[in-house]
Amino acid sequence: MKQILIRDFHELKHFDFKLAACIGYFDGIHKGHQHLINKTIDEAKKRGVSSAMITFNPDPWTVITGKNSVNHITPMKEKVMILEQLGLDYLIVIEFSKDVAALSPQEFLEYYLIPLNVEALIVGEDFKFGYNGSGNIAYLKEHAKHHFDTVVLSIDKTNSKKIGTTLIVQSLLKGDIKEANELLGRDYEISGYVIHGRKQGRKIGFRTANMDIVDEYVIPAEGVYAGFVEVKGKTYQAMLSIGYNPTFNHTERLSVETHILDFNEEIYGELIKQSFVAKLRGQIKFNSVDELIVQMNHDRDQTREILNAREAQL
């Protein structure tokens, strides 16, 4: 997949090859997005043109609202890694600014979509674009019909709800990993660098890797989770804790710590990737450290059972 960054439409030269393209911010690359991407690839093959995703960076909503700190399901680096696996020919990233936000639908067509030599634009039925979202499907079909075809897909739903980023974020914030993963079509993941903690976990037999989360990931609800962690290119079973450690080694700052099963290496400074397969329980304040140890041993056994079952399915 080739990547093209457009910093300013004034510098955008007319592409000498045609595209079938989908367009949007695509946070999560969830099942609904994947449906749109697969349709884009199919449309490109049918027409004998290149397939592309047109997206934006930073998140248009953060630019329009002026909010600098907004968490996402898939920050841009994560998004690129996922898209690499889906088979698109091009990822076209438009650098989003207040000037871009102020463009009318017609200006956006003329400054971006027409120079990009789009032959088919694949969009969801709720797609909007241009200043204040004033452009829609009807506008595209009327004003862009001499330049490209507009292919409209119906919205994917689950239990009568639209499969969307908001629903996935709500699931993560509730700790409903099962629902979030079902909507994503894969296990949710976060990445972080291993940093020095207070090294208290090793005193009770549960050495942990403290994660300094990179980028603006949505962090699931406090609790204990089972998942897989990737370290130095290898994948291990892991038990992840998110919270303030109410019983032992209490912290004022939200702690994200992963206990990697059958692993005893020093990995400070390493970038690790942690997936969420299942939530084991919420955070509990135990009456003693001994009670905590008993529960953590149970959590570890449950983690092995869940992840062994997952690996057996692969």
Helix and strand arrangement:
Blueprint: E1 2-6, E2 19-23, H1 31-47, E3 50-57, H2 60-65, H3 76-84, E4 90-95, H4 98-101, H5 105-113, E5 118-124, H6 137-143, E6 149-153, E7 157-158, E8 161-162, H7 165-174, H8 177-184, E9 188-195, E10 209-213, E11 223-231, E12 234-243, E13 255-260, E14 271-276, E15 278-281, H9 289-313
Parallel strand pairs: 1-4, 2-3, 2-5, 3-4, 5-6
Antiparallel strand pairs: 7-8, 9-10, 9-14, 10-13, 11-12, 11-14, 11-15, 12-13
Brief account:
With 314 residues, the chain is α/β, with parallel strands linked by helices. Helix content is 30%, strand content 28%.
What is the residue-mean pLDDT, rounded to a whole number?
92
Distance between the termini: 26 Å
User: How big is the Rg?
Assistant: 22 Å
Main sheet characteristics:
6 strands, parallel
Report helical residue fraction. Answer: 25-40%
- Into which percentage range does the β-strand content fall? 25-35%
Main CATH class of the largest domain: Alpha Beta
Coarse morphology:
elongated
Strands of the largest sheet, in order across it?
1-4-3-2-5-6
What's the SSE pattern? EEHEHHEHHEHEEEHHEEEEEEEH
Q: Remind me, CATH topology of the largest domain?
A: Rossmann fold
Total discrete domains: 2
Q: Structural class from helices and strands?
A: alpha/beta
Number of strands: 15
Please state the second-level CATH architecture of the largest domain.
3-Layer(aba) Sandwich
